[in-house]
């Protein structure tokens, strides 16, 4: 027999006598503001950023082009650089100073911008901890040393360094539409990043005496000047990452002759820096479908033994990028292959650089993971626009345009565990994925880490799934965020928190936003609506500077879904999801209910009561001779409060009126047979966690069959604490499982199950009748199907 299920929602009852008095007595009137619009929480739309989430007709952003030369002194571990910056003022504002970032000052003991943390006396301590850390310290010799700051003609410019920021005071105002050309010469001692930390520096390999350099945040970089922030010159303390300006780069790196260099963009002189054999392999790799070793393992091992004193200069160019990073070492094995991005027919060189210590992992997987990542991200966002994508094994993870640094080394004998392999694949996918967020969709990481890390972690999860359906993703699936959401409230903070203020940085900036987007895609919006909206956001804000409101508004604008309740709860709040099955009530139909007779009811409409207190406004309005009240002019208006919305044109005070209740007809035997096996189940839910979510139920029947039903989060709109759903089944129900696939991040699944254990629950009766044909639609108007009639349809 075909299973029939009828779902009764509150909207049905609204047409069958659910009155204002019911609402008044209903505890559902208790609201926590969860479904209110974000309103003024979001910035006011303007000509730069529209209410739809798209850039406005007045949108602008400034630009900075760089021409840089760098000299890597391996013996002194020092970098010397000279740059010419061309800065374009596309803003409507006149600028009398500009700001640049000196991120390398974070490594200095005297120039850094660290925020202090509370400290307590330990019960036990080692000699390192006993150092007088809160006393003045001497200069450790790290940080940027500015040699010269001039205009294009060589005239010195006045500048001020404030920790990791530098302000240049302009000799004349830089007006709208004008450009400024200036030059900076600088140097700094390259830190050992394995000991001092940080994103850039060198790693030394004592076994062979070689260094591996990751040159990042290595040059004075322009700050962003924007319509929403002005100058983004918040100090760099090591956590909040970067807000940067798009532009074109030309960079030349002078390094030891036996070094191999990888960098942002395309190398323009491979024919001068590679051997003929290496150049031939590089050209072969362009059309290969498998990675080709451009610099072989044997060549890398040989280079490790001989430290050349000769020099070579590598020249790279990159257009429409926000940053430039590079790597240099004689230890590198280098492989690559060509990848076609079908959405824009872009031919990309996917490449990897890695020392012998990572050979057995990176040779097998790295370049293929790079290719897989840019192809998958291209499907979910925009087609990858750049000519190169590179992965560098450097014992850490960090991202830059077209190049990223990852970990993943084997044991000394070349073996590795599944955990190391999957960790390596995850970090390669994640860091290569950063090419899209924030290298192309260029959010302000210094302010909103989640727009960078969270959005990227979400698409990383989608990409890992495409790599291997059994991939052990740790961020993205709803159930993986539960342990974090279980923490006490004083250990949680909203996603919408500044980078520097987040305590649980990994869960809050990476996992929770990624999980939220996955819940939107799988459970709330559905894949089709979500994917279209997400791609729209990526397309709108590619090569621009989006803010959170631009994302929130675009997701709603492109999908037609009101998601303010979700942004409010998941992004601005800290409440967890904990929905519980509170009670299940069962009832069977009373098939012998006698028909109801038609009858009439007499009623009166009383005159509305006058105001009990004459407030000051009413008194002053009466005294104001310039005011003429509408009801004094219009007789119909005087009767306004005596009208009643039951079809009467007017209702006279104290006059008696009649309301007729339509009668019913008895059920036929055939109709009784249809309904005799029906059982009604009212399921009561309690929102214990506070965060509203869809209600997803899996019903298991006594014959072993199953049925799944989902109600949107709107079921909580009239009562954010309690909700009920009534179902009519023609099979006996054995059990109910709430959120069977753990897709809402419910922190307590122990209250998500109900079982009809032996049928001990008391079963009540409910009346079942059919209305007469005349007037029968009055109880289920506006296209609503009478639920009891629908239950009997085949």
From TrEMBL:
Residues 772-794 are annotated as: Disordered. SUPFAM superfamilies: Metalloproteases ('zincins'), catalytic domain. Keywords: Signal. Gene3D superfamilies: Neutral Protease Domain 2 (1.10.390.10). InterPro entries: Peptidase_M1_aminopeptidases, Peptidase_M1_dom, Peptidase_M4/M1_CTD_sf. Residues 1-20 form the signal peptide. Residues 370-570 form the Peptidase M1 membrane alanine aminopeptidase domain. GO terms for molecular function: metalloaminopeptidase activity; peptide binding; zinc ion binding. One of its GO terms (cellular component) is extracellular space. One of its GO terms (biological process) is peptide catabolic process. This is M1 family metallopeptidase.
């Amino acid at each position: 027999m075909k299973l029939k299920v009828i779902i009764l929602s509150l909207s049905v009852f609204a047409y069958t006598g659910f009155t204002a008095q019911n609402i008044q007595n209903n505890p559902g009137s208790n609201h926590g503001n969860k479904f209110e619009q974000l309103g003024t929480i979001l910035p006011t739309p303007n000509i730069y950023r529209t209410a739809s989430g798209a850039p406005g007709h007045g949108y602008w952003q400034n630009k900075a082009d760089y021409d840089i030369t760098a000299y890597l002194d391996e013996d002194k571990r020092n970098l010397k650089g000279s740059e010419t910056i061309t800065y374009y003022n596309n803003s409507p504002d006149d600028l009398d100073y500009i700001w640049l970032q000196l991120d390398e000052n974070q490594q200095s003991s005297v120039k850094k911008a660290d925020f202090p943390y509370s400290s307590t006396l330990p019960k036990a301590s080692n000699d390192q901890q006993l150092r007088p850390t809160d006393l003045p310290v001497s200069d450790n010799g790290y940080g940027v040393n500015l040699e010269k700051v001039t205009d294009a003609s060589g005239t010195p410019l006045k500048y001020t360094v404030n920790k990791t920021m530098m302000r240049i005071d302009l000799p004349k105002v830089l007006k709208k539409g004008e450009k400024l050309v200036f030059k900076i010469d600088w140097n700094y001692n390259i830190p050992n990043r394995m000991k001092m930390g940080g994103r850039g520096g060198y790693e030394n390999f004592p076994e062979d005496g070689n260094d591996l350099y990751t040159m990042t945040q290595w040059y004075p970089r322009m700050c962003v000047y924007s319509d929403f922030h002005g100058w983004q010159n918040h100090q760099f303390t090591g956590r909040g990452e970067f807000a940067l300006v798009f532009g074109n780069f030309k960079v030349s790196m002078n390094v030891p002759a036996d070094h191999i260099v990888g960098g942002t963009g395309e190398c323009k002189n491979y024919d001068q820096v590679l051997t003929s054999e290496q150049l031939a392999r590089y050209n072969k790799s362009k059309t290969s479908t498998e990675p080709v070793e451009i610099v072989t393992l044997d060549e890398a091992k040989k280079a490790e033994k001989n430290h050349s004193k000769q020099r070579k200069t590598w020249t790279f160019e990159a257009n429409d990028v926000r940053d430039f990073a590079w790597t240099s070492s004689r230890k590198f094995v280098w492989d690559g292959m060509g990848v076609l991005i079908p959405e824009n027919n872009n031919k990309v060189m996917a490449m990897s650089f890695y020392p012998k210590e990572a050979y057995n992992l990176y040779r097998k997987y790295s370049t293929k993971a790079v290719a897989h990542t840019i192809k998958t991200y291209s499907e979910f966002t925009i087609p990858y626009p750049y000519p190169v994508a590179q992965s560098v094994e450097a014992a850490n993870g960090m991202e830059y345009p077209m190049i990223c640094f990852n970990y993943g080394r084997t044991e000394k004998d070349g073996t590795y565990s599944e955990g190391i392999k999957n960790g390596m694949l995850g970090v390669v996918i994640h860091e290569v994925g950063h090419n899209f967020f924030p290298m192309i969709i260029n959010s302000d990481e210094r302010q909103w880490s989640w727009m960078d890390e969270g959005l990227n972690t979400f698409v990383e999860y989608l990409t890992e799934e495409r790599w291997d359906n059994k991939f052990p993703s740790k961020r993205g699936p709803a159930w993986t965020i539960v342990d974090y959401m279980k923490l006490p409230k004083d250990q949680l903070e909203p996603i919408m928190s500044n980078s520097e203020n987040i305590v649980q940085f990994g869960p809050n900036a990476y996992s929770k936003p990624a999980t939220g987007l996955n819940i939107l895609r799988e459970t709330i919006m559905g894949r089709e609506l979500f994917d279209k909206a997400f791609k729209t956001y990526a397309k709108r804000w590619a090569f621009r500077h989006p803010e959170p409101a631009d994302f929130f508004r675009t997701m709603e604008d492109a999908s037609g879904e009101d998601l303010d309740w979700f942004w409010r709860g998941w992004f601005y709040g800290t409440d967890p999801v904990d929905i519980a099955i509170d009670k299940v009530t069962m009832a069977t139909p009373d098939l012998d209910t006698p028909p109801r007779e038609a009858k009439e009811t007499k009623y009166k409409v009383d005159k509305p009561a006058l105001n009990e207190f004459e407030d000051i406004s009413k008194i002053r309005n009466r005294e104001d001779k310039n005011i003429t009240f509408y009801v004094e002019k219009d007789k119909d208006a005087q009767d306004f409060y005596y009208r009643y919305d039951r079809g009467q044109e007017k209702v006279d005070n104290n006059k008696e009126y009649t309301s007729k209740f339509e009668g019913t007809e008895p059920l036929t035997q055939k109709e009784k047979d249809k309904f005799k096996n029906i059982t009604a189940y009212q399921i009561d839910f309690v929102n214990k966690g506070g965060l509203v979510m869809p209600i997803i139920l899996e019903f298991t029947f006594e014959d072993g069959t199953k049925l799944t039903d989902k109600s949107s989060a709107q079921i909580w709109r009239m009562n954010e604490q309690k909700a009920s759903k009534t179902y009519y089944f023609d099979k006996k129900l054995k059990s109910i499982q709430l959120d069977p696939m753990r897709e809402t991040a419910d922190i307590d699944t122990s209250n998500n199950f109900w079982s009809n254990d032996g049928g001990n629950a008391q079963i009540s009766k409910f009346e079942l009748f059919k209305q007469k044909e005349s007037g029968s639609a009055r109880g289920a108007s506006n296209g609503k199907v009478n639920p009891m009639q629908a239950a009997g349809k085949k």
